[in-house]
Each structure stands twice: as C-alpha cells, then as structure tokens.
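Backbones bend. Shown next:

***
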Amino acid sequence: MLELAILGFLHEEPLHGYELKERIAALNGHVRPVSDGALYPAINRLTAAGLVSEHAEPGVGAAPRRVLSLTDTGRARLLARLRDPKPIEITDSTRFFAVLAFLGYLPDAAAQAAVLRRRLEFLETPAGFFPDRGRAPRAEEADDPFRRGMLRIARATSRAEREWLSEALADLSG
C-alpha cells in the first residue's frame, strides 16, 4: 500500500518527503500511520528501481530539500498496479480505499470498472465475524451488545459500499 500511495501522490505533482508523508497520513488516517522508518526506505527502493527520481531544492532556512518526482517507468507501474490490484487490495477496506484514491488515473473506464467489479464480488460473498454452524449470525441474534453493534455497523457499511459500487459501475458503462 505504501508503494501505491507514493506513486499515486507523485503522479499528481513532485513532492518532498515531508509533504508526501503528510498526504499518506491523511489518506490512511490514524489506522495505519506511516513512519519515517518505513517511508524513506520505500522511497529509496523506488528510486533505485527507477520509478521515482529526486533532485535537491534549497530549503527554507535549512538544508536542501529532497524533491521526488514520478518517472515514466513509475507512472507505468502505478497504472499497472491500478489495473490489477493485489487480492489484499480488494479485500482489505483501507487498502481498497488507497486504490480508489488513485483509480481515476486509469484512462480506461473498462479497466476502472473491472476493479470495482472485483470489490463488489468480494462484498457479495457471504461472510461474518462470528460464524455459527456455517452461517453468519444476524446482528439481532448476537448476545453481546457490542458484537451486535459491530455486526450492524459492518452490514450498513457494506450495504452502502455495494450501492455506491453499483452506481459507479452503471456510470462507467455509460
């Protein structure tokens, strides 16, 4: 997810590391904060792979700032990642939101729709947090009021997302 976020934000404009970190933090929220110990090694790997380039600009009263830009190879990698997200990027909501944040960069509506269809198919697969004899319990059946709340919230969220996905797919198909 970190690579996708770096490539996606650099697709928008060149950024220095701190700006990039702030944008990734805003995308992830408090759920998955990004540390310098994760971000800068990832930037170095992407730079070594030729996906990101860097140049120095004078800092404001400090050392020069390292400004990062997306290369043509990096742009191609981003589009490939968006065309074919990893399974975990479809099934994990936070990772899927990272895909959604940049999916508009795919120039092909059919490719965008294919990604949305994968997410919709996942959401339509029956699942539950606390399976009971092979079936997911209904929220009103949960004995624990907190589990009951968890089930209600998850189902409402899933229903809203399925509705949005259906609308978006209809829009993409014309």
Observations:
- The helical segments are 2-12, 17-28, 36-48, 72-83, 87-91, 93-103, 109-124, 145-172.
- The first strand starts at residue 15 and ends at 16.
- Residues 129 and 136 are 7 Å apart (CA to CA).
- Residues 2-125 form a domain with the Arc Repressor Mutant, subunit A fold (CATH 1.10.10.10).
